[in-house]
Every structure is written in C-alpha cells, then in structure tokens.
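Summary for the lay section of the report: proteins are chains of building blocks that fold into shapes. Here we show the chain for ABC transporter permease and then a coded description of the shape we predicted for it.
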Amino acid sequence: MTVHEGLGNRIVLWVIAVLGLLVIYAPPLYLLAISFNPALQPGLPSLSALSLDWYMALPQEKALIGALQQSFLIAFVTAVLATFLSLLAALGYVELRLGRTTWFLAVLLPMFVPGVVQGLALSAVFTRLGVKASMITVISGHLLWAMPFAFIVILTSFAAVRQTALLAAADLGASRWRQFVDITLPLIRPGLVSAFIFSFLLSLNEFTRAFYLAGRQNTLPVVLFSKMNSGASPVIYAMSGAIFIVSVLTVAALALYNLLGKRRLS
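The coded shape description reads as follows.
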C-alpha cells in the first residue's frame, strides 16, 4: 500500500466518522438550539434572539418537575440495583469454568428484547399477579434494560485484575473476601462507577417500558411525550435541553474519571 492510498483510506474513514457523528448528534443539538428560542413556534433562533425564557419558566411547570423527581428516584434505585446485581453476575462469570458462554448470553438476553415487547409482557405478568402499576413496576422494567449494559461494563473492568496478584494474596493468607476487598474492588471501581452512571442515564431516558409500567406518577419521558402530542409550550424543549446538557457533562466527567484512574494505575 502506498502512502497516498493510506492517506486516502484515512480521509474516507474520517469522513464516515464525521457523518456518523452528525447523524447521531444533529437532532439533540437542534433540540438544544430551539430551546433558546423565545418564540412559541420551535425554530432556530438568531444569535441576537437567544433567550433563557423557557428555562426560567421550568420551575412553574409542576407536572414536569414532579415527573423529573420521580424519574431521578427511579433511575437512582435502578442504577444501584443494576450495579450490584451486575457485579454479582460478573463475579459468577469469572468464577465459572463451564457454561461461561451460556451465563454470558443469559445475562445479555434482555438487551435484545424490544422495549415494546418487554414492557407489554411485564405489564401482562404484573396484571395477572395483581400487582398495580407503580414505581416498583417501572424499576423492574428499567432494571431488565440496564443490567446487561452494566454487566458488560463491569466485566470489562475485570481485565485490570491480575490472577497473579490474587494468588500472591492467597499465599500470604488473605481470604477470598479480603482478596476481593483489598485487590479486586479497587481495581474495578472505575467500572462500577461507569456502570452506575450508565444505568442511571438509561433509566432516566427510558420511555417504552415506562409507558406500559408507570403508575399514577409518570416518568419524565412519558410526560414529555404526552405534552408534545397535546401542543404544550416550548418549555418541554428547555427541559429536554437541560437533560441533554447534564447527560453530556456527566459522561464527560465519567471519561475524565476513568482517564485519571488509568493514569494512577499505570
């Protein structure tokens, strides 16, 4: 391969990457931009017309604020449970000698079930059992959705745990529990934090499952959807823009945390 061919391939790859990023980020960036438009009709504002009017109006939207609080609580509980259960699943995978592939696929299976199917199935099961739609039913649906992703993140972090270090600790008399607390846990801590934040954001933004499983107090995505269809004020764009900004900042902080963690270990 000549130098010119290599340069041409890199240019093509960069163009494809840029186009892919534009397709992914253009819609939320457009939504963020129109949230600064003070007009009632959504549209891109001019630089001279940028306004925080709709953001200032957010505290008066009691339904949105209540749904946001409910969503944050559901997301927090989901993230805690998903991280803990995924850690147990990852530990089980590491300890297994036979059936690893089966265990891995079993944990990941909910990831491939469409949200509509999963939400409807859970709703039918809960109805059959006499369980009323509530925060608990929403958390159960979000947990099935978030846990496979948390499992992958945590399992990947186990690559930092060297078997030789565990064997050395065992030779010095450390129990399995002390090996986990003193060696494994500090090494996989970035993965646990990543899994928690990932699960939190997945739950916070989940709509399909919550639509079937929510009780009287709907989650924020469900409320935003209903207000969008009823022709509500553009304050919903401000709420969406605020969540988008917080999500981006959270992911950026997580990336920085992982980078600093890798530098400390190196």
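Put simply, here is one thing we learned. The CA atoms of residues 101 and 225 lie 39 Å apart.
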